[in-house]
Specification:
Blueprint lengths: L6 H6 L6 H10 L25 E15 L14 E3 L10 E2 L1 E2 L15 E2 L13 E3 L7 E3 L6 E3 L5 E2 L5 E5 L10 E8 L3 E2 L9 E2 L3 E9 L2 H5 L8 E2 L3 E2 L1 E4 L1 E16 L11 E2 L4
Antiparallel strand pairs: 1-8, 1-9, 1-10, 1-18, 2-11, 3-19, 4-5, 6-7, 11-14, 12-13, 14-17, 15-18, 16-18
Length: 276
């Protein structure tokens, strides 16, 4: 399907612009009327925020329960294993939403808007097991101790910020498909350091555990297609691979109509760490 050119681009630059330059502009997010915005202007990695108002559609996932078939722990921390999301970029990093949900009551049959407040004394990167350890780092680490152990977090779940997504359309445009996120999980192997660091520390590489996939597009089926602008989806089962035995999740879905930003949005608290 062809995409209409930007009117200012057509009038001023068409005589000298090349196809290569057009391709570069498309990659960095040049605004095309009616097309999806590629990022939220309040996100730090958004290169060229679009100043025009948009309708934003967003999802923030939480993981309600999960289990694994192999803890992959071979280092000195036996029998506990700390696991993390690869997309976090580091084993122990990041903050997640202070709360999700508005707390507003809804009519019978409507998507619930229950508000859940979260304990921020944990790493956003942590694929949380059921066992809290408090002396391993500056925040509580939720670790795994054996196979086929379930980590259950109830209907509020534990926020999975790396699956958070927002897409925008022109005001009054067709709702976008929020797609899906596929996440890899790794086990963090520690280093063995003898006294006085002689001989040098020996560090094992982190072990791949498995993958899971969640579908943010469930916001459409569970919330928006039913005529609601915000609410929780039903609990869904993720697609899993390798030593991830199961993952279940739900989504907080919300919209920000006719605005230039939806960095938090209705029912989404700011990302905060301990001691804020």
């Amino acid at each position: 399907m062809s995409t209409p050119s930007h009117p200012r681009l057509t009038r001023r630059l068409r005589p000298r612009i090349s196809l290569a330059l057009l391709a570069v502009l498309a990659l960095v997010g040049w605004h095309v009327p009616g097309a999806y915005a590629i990022c939220d202007p309040d996100e730090p990695d958004c290169p060229f925020p679009d100043p025009d108002p948009r309708d934003f559609y967003c999802a923030y996932p939480v993981l309600t329960d999960m289990s694994i078939t192999n803890i992959h722990e071979s280092g000195p921390a036996l029998p506990f294993a700390y696991m993390y999301f690869k997309s976090a970029g580091a084993p122990k990093t990041g903050e997640y939403a202070d709360y999700l949900g508005t707390g507003l009551s809804t009519p019978a049959g409507a998507p619930p808007q229950t508000r859940y407040d979260y304990d921020n004394n944990a790493w956003a990167s942590n694929f949380k097991g059921p066992i809290p350890l408090t002396l391993e780092s500056s925040r509580t680490q939720w670790e795994w101790s054996n196979t086929l152990q379930t980590s259950a977090w109830g209907p509020e779940g534990t926020p999975y910020k790396y699956g958070k997504v927002c897409k925008a359309v022109s005001v009054g445009g067709t709702r976008p498909d929020l797609g899906y996120t596929t996440e890899s999980v790794y086990e963090d192997d520690e280093c063995v350091c003898p006294p006085w660091d002689l001989p040098p520390c020996v560090c094992n590489p982190d072990d791949y555990v498995g993958k899971f996939r969640i579908y943010q597009s469930r916001c459409e089926t569970d919330v928006w297609s039913r005529g609601y602008t915000k609410g929780w989806t039903n609990v869904r089962s993720a697609v899993v691979w390798d030593d991830i035995n199961h993952v279940r999740y739900r989504l907080w879905c919300h919209t920000c109509p006719n605005t230039t930003s939806c960095a938090t949005g209705p029912g989404v608290g700011p990302d905060r760490g301990p001691g804020w």
